[in-house]
From TrEMBL:
One of its GO terms (molecular function) is sigma factor activity. The keyword Transcription regulation applies. The lineage of its organism: Bacteria, Bacillati, Actinomycetota, Actinomycetes, Pseudonocardiales. Residues 4-67 form the RNA polymerase sigma-70 region domain. Keywords: Sigma factor, Transcription, Transcription regulation. This is Sigma-70 family RNA polymerase sigma factor.
Length: 289
């Protein structure tokens, strides 16, 4: 028991990054403990590696089952999601990165497992290959393909990207606290907000114009904004709104001369699936301490 407990924290971290769900990660670790308890491991030279392989295979089975169900998480926007206590959620999600969890969800099960194990936990490819049932060469290709999908190819220069990123982050910070002055400082006077009807309260117009109107409206979405994070949307700076790491809304933002001249709120599942969402290329893809 003590042997397993010494590795529980790392196993939970691996499972959470693979599954994006604290509850499912805990279930996977518990199942790994059951298998450990029923197995004679006295001849296992590298128990940490053995346990990582076990929990990874369990997670891969979960991911395959999820893909087979092809479920749409929260196709509607239930109020309990927005009203939930964010404290525990924030600790878990922020440790990984909300945008990264969103992008990981778009990978195939084998890509996700290969990428998480190698790029986030520095597991050698020769140890990952048996987990995903691929050759070492094919496993490297899985991780490489996943890495490319996660980091993408920006359509703007680094300097321009960082400038736009600062504007969008200031917009999100002001919206979280309902700071009207802060919102007006980053919105162009003639800003236009467009939105899918499903992202708005009943009766709200899908198009809003003018900084005063858009700022006051945005200030009222503070509880949703706390689940937001900047990300690259189709190669340009934008944001994702993802409670518990599950994408519900994407913001496609246009920035000109350090002001937001327009943004679109995308919430229709088909439109979200069509977006290419990536993390910034300075995201720390390295094993957690």
């Amino acid at each position: 028991m003590d042997e397993f407990e010494a590795h529980r924290g790392r196993l939970r971290a691996v499972a959470y990054r693979m599954l994006g769900s604290a509850a499912e990660a805990e279930d996977a670790v518990q199942e790994a403990w059951i298998r450990f308890d029923r197995t004679d491991t006295t001849g296992v030279g590298n128990l940490a590696g053995w346990l990582t392989t076990v929990v990874s295979r369990i997670c891969l089975d979960h991911l395959r089952a999820r893909a087979a169900r092809a479920e749409e998480p929260w196709a509607e926007l239930p109020e309990q999601v927005w009203e939930s206590d964010p404290e525990q959620e924030a600790v878990l999600v922020d440790a990984v990165g909300r945008a990264l969890l969103v992008v990981l969800d778009a990978l195939s099960p084998h890509e996700r497992v290969a990428f998480v194990l190698h790029d986030l936990f520095a597991v050698p490819f020769d140890e990952i290959a048996p987990v995903v049932d691929r050759s070492v060469v094919a496993t490297k290709k899985l991780a490489s393909r996943a890495r490319h999908r996660i980091q993408g190819t920006p359509t703007v220069s680094r300097a321009e990207r960082e400038r736009q990123r600062a504007v969008v982050e200031a917009f999100l910070a002001a919206s979280r606290t309902g700071d009207l002055d802060g919102l007006l400082a980053v919105l162009a006077p003639d800003v236009v907000r467009r939105a899918d009807a499903s992202a708005l309260p009943p009766g709200r117009a899908t198009v809003a114009r003018g900084s005063d109107i858009v700022a006051r409206e945005t200030a009222g979405f503070g509880r949703r904004s706390r689940f937001a994070a900047t990300a690259m949307i189709d190669g340009r700076v934008g944001a994702v709104v993802a409670p518990f790491g599950k994408l519900l809304i994407a913001l496609s933002v246009t920035v000109e001369e350090d002001r937001i001249t327009g943004y679109e709120v995308i919430s229709e599942p088909a439109r979200l699936r069509a977006l290419k969402i990536t993390v910034f290329d300075d995201f720390p893809l390295s094993p957690p301490k």
